[in-house]
Amino acid sequence: MASSASSKKRPASPAAALFLKKLRGKRVVITFHVLGDLDAAGSAIALARFIGQKAVIAPPDAMSASARRLFAYTGTKTEPFSPDLLAKRGFLAVLDSSSPSLLPHLAGLSADLAIDHHIRSPDSVPAKLLINDPQACSTSEMLYFLLRPSDKISSIALLLGIISDSAGFQNATSRTFEAVSALLSASSISYSAIKQLAFAPQSLSERIEALRSCQSVRAERIGEHLIAAAMAKSHEGHFAEMLVRMGADIAFVGCEGSEGVICARMRQCMKGKVSLGRIMSEAGKVLGGSGGGHELAAAASGSPEAVREALAVCTKLAEQQILSAESGRVKKIEW
Question: Per-residue DSSP letters for 4-34?
């Protein structure tokens, strides 16, 4: 576990849990990174339920399809983030990111509380109190041990966050499985049902569109590796994971909705050869928005008109990184 030089020293887990208990019944604004994913959404839902009815979840922009489904399934309301909302509530809690590029709505602001599993950098958004554990595969995993929820909704929300950010347990540790075991028991839902809720299209129209999206897949071979790129009308994250399960080493899937989105997924064997987070950061620039993510899962969002151009850039950068990878290090990318 780590702390930030610009923040108060992070307390040990019992002290952190005690601090969170003191927030119960308080007026708290809970926010997270742009293009909120299942980990951000699940963490926010669990923390809001723990704090109580005065807590407000305030996303900065449109969330991923799976995150939106989770909010709908749990009946959790949100309010768009705004300075006025923060002024009324006072206390600001930031989840699942500390990167200024992924938290543009917090420019010039300091969080009262930050809970995050990513490694912090010198330019990380400052927080008065930081709870940071880079060893955890997700913020949802961290919140399980901090909150120890027993209600069904919080358990489902954290389960989905853990499954998603661990890339299907590829990044899991023994603590991950400890949390999942307890949460599955509390949720009274089977693991297969949880996975369906997390990723699979549910309605007939969604399933039809998912199958039609297969027609757009393009695969490129780079040595012994395969890069797949495709367009989808929805559930881009689910489709990218499906392409990896079908044999792609790296998959990029774009979606031209009200907001342009590209989701990327990668096999474990590509770690050290390709940096999805860096590629998505560059894709975000092409989209006129932002991007980033984890080693095996990342995303970018911005203008829908630039999705196809950004998708081509993703493929090109992945190709360059594969070809230039030496001794487990990735050279500078250019395009």
Answer: -TTSBPPPPHHHHHHHHHTTTTS-EEEEE-S
Q: What is the CATH number of domain 13-197?
A: 3.90.1640.10
How many other C-beta atoms can be found within 10 angstroms of the C-beta atom of residue 279? 31
In the structure, what pLDDT confidence band is assigned to residue 215 with cuts at 50, 70 and 90? Answer: confident
pLDDT of residue 334: 52
In the chain, DSSP finds a helix count (H) and a strand count (E) of 12, 11
169: left (phi over 0), alpha (psi -120 to 50) or beta: left
Supply φ then ψ for residue 261, to 5 degrees: -135, 140
Q: How far apart are CA 70 and CA 11, in angstroms?
A: 31
CATH code, 204-324: 3.10.310.40
Residue 57: both structure tokens together: 């979840």
Domain boundaries, the chain: 13-197, 204-324
Sheet containing strand 127-132, edge to edge, reads 55-57, 28-32, 91-95, 111-116, 127-132
Q: Does 65 have pLDDT greater than 90?
A: no
Which segments within 214-249 are labelled E, that is strand? 218-222, 225-231
Q: How far apart are CA 116 and CA 313, in angstroms?
A: 29
Element housing 57 (H / E): strand 55-57
- 94 membership: H or E segment, kind and range: strand 91-95
Q: Tell me: pLDDT of 234 over 60.
A: yes
Residue-wise pLDDT tens digits, 179-203: 999 999 999 989 888 887 776 665 6
Q: Which residues 6+ apart lie within 8 Å of 29 measured at CB?
A: 55, 56, 58, 81, 85, 86, 89, 91, 92, 93
**Contact predicate 311/262, CB 8 Å:** yes
- Residue 64 is given by DSSP the state P
In sequence order, what are the beta bridge partners of 240?
Answer: none
